[in-house]
């Protein structure tokens, strides 16, 4: 069963570009991972401090592999100084 998540990040004031850099660095290596079906980062047009990652993984094992990857570890150890808030939601694909 696939896993689809949205992860929302709110950058700290003045940290929008650094947050954008950290998040976009995740796209290419994540898409190359076994089990990645969809992985994109979005920045809100009307609120430039707000970003959303939308990702779909083949199964829990693929998501666990993503969380164990080198690029995920870099992101995980780097984003907090630039992030005011972060939350995630599991999504159900309809149709």
Automatic annotation (TrEMBL):
Pfam families: ABM
Keywords, in A-Z order: Monooxygenase, Oxidoreductase
SUPFAM superfamilies, per database record: Dimeric alpha+beta barrel
Gene3D superfamilies hit by this protein: 3.30.70.100
Entry-linked InterPro entries: ABM_dom (IPR007138), AI-2_Isomerase_LsrG (IPR050744), Dimeric_a/b-barrel (IPR011008)
Domain ABM: 3-91
Keyword Oxidoreductase part of the UniProt annotation: yes
Superkingdom: Bacteria
An annotated Gene Ontology molecular function: monooxygenase activity
Protein name as annotated: Antibiotic biosynthesis monooxygenase
Taxonomy of the source species: Bacteria, Pseudomonadati, Campylobacterota, Epsilonproteobacteria, Campylobacterales
């Amino acid at each position: 069963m696939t896993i689809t998540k949205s992860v929302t990040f709110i950058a700290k004031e003045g940290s929008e570009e650094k947050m954008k850099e950290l998040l976009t660095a995740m796209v290419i290596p994540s898409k190359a991972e076994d089990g990645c079906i969809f992985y994109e980062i979005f920045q809100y047009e009307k609120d430039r401090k707000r970003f959303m990652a939308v990702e779909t993984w083949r199964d829990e094992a693929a998501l666990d592999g993503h969380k164990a990857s080198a690029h995920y570890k870099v992101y995980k150890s780097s984003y907090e100084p630039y992030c005011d808030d972060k939350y995630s939601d599991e999504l159900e694909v309809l149709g």
